[in-house]
Write a structure and sequence with these properties.
By secondary structure, the chain is α/β, with parallel strands linked by helices. It has a single domain, classed as Spore Coat Polysaccharide Biosynthesis Protein SpsA, Chain A. Helices cover 40% and strands 16% of the residues. α7 crosses α8 and α10 crosses α11. The longest helix is centred in the last third of the chain and has 22 residues.
């Protein structure tokens, strides 16, 4: 068994120390990987959040630059226990699995926020999210996400990310990921549900969180007011665009095969979780999977 296999051994994504409930409002989970050039600015913006008590839990995904030194320095400046590093070694498992591992470490937190390593949060970023989540019964899974101010490497404004044409819901989330990870904050019910789910082999953390929560009858809240500077640079794991034409060109460049493969991954994962889905979502997932399989057979024949 390889080091990666050991890190992901059953129960899945659960090889980090958990944090216990304390006097904090949100657990921020951050996966780092060679984030040295921009990481300090992101950490400073986390520290500058208005009227929010937070705890940061992070894991490194195999960095070879100054990332670990920056994180260690930041941790030493914070009160004891305020910044917690994952206990397992920095095995490179990729962004999706890394964030799922981190999510399993924050299940006692009232709310959980995803954080990228290269953005800048506006001071009201977390407070806006928590205000939105307070409108939902805490027993009901809920995820907050929103628009971003797109900036270049030097934080010069490019524009604002696009608004979704329709409210985020199932099955629309099968076709489009509207929840950019750096904006996502979820309540405890959502975090626990996602953690317990049978996850796709390949996905991105933000897409699976929004898709699964919607499919089990939870709520996905979208904030039209940006509260984050979303840095666009050559090393972005995913990136965004304020221009529909640019998005279309990028989608065409990826090809239909990649999109279809992700659709199948998500459908298969949803159907493995069929007992937790709403009856409507389970029925839709079965129908789409059957029609997709039928169309594939027709093309082969």
């Amino acid at each position: 068994m390889t080091a990666v296999d050991l890190a992901l051994a059953s129960p899945p994504y659960d090889r980090v120390n958990t944090i216990t409930r304390a006097s904090f409002d949100v657990a921020i989970v951050m996966s780092t990987f060679n984030g040295g050039p921009f990481l300090a600015e992101q950490l400073e913006s986390v520290q500058s959040q208005n009227d929010i008590k937070w705890k940061l839990i992070w894991r490194d995904d195999g960095s070879t630059d100054t990332t670990l030194a920056i994180m260690d320095s930041f941790s030493r400046r914070m009160p004891p226990g305020h910044v917690v590093r994952a206990a397992e070694p920095g095995v490179n498992v990729g962004i999706f699995r890394s964030f799922m591992m981190l999510l399993g470490a924050a299940l006692e937190a009232p709310t959980v926020a995803f954080a990228d390593q290269d953005d800048v949060w506006l001071p009201n970023k977390l407070s806006r999210a928590l205000d939105h989540l307070k409108t939902v019964d805490p027993s009901k899974p809920a995820v907050y996400c929103g628009r971003q101010i797109l900036v270049d490497e030097g934080l010069r404004r490019i524009g604002a990310s696009l608004k979704p044409r329709r409210p985020p819901s199932f099955p629309g989330l099968l076709l489009q990921n509207i929840g950019t990870g750096c904006t996502i904050v979820m309540n405890q019910a959502a975090a626990r549900a996602v953690h317990a789910s049978s996850k796709p082999n390949q996905s991105v953390h933000d897409w699976w969180v929004c898709l699964y929560v919607a499919a089990i009858g939870g709520i996905v809240l979208f904030d039209d007011t940006p509260a984050i500077l979303y840095r666009q640079h050559q090393k972005n794991a995913i990136g965004a665009s304020s221009n529909f034409l640019h998005r279309l060109i990028r989608a065409l460049a990826r090809g239909a095969g990649a999109h279809n493969a992700q659709l199948v991954e998500h459908l298969d994962a949803l159907l493995r979780n069929e007992a937790t889905l709403t009856l409507e979502a389970a029925d839709i997932a079965r129908q789409i999977k059957a029609k997709y399989a039928g169309s594939c057979r027709a093309r082969i024949i």
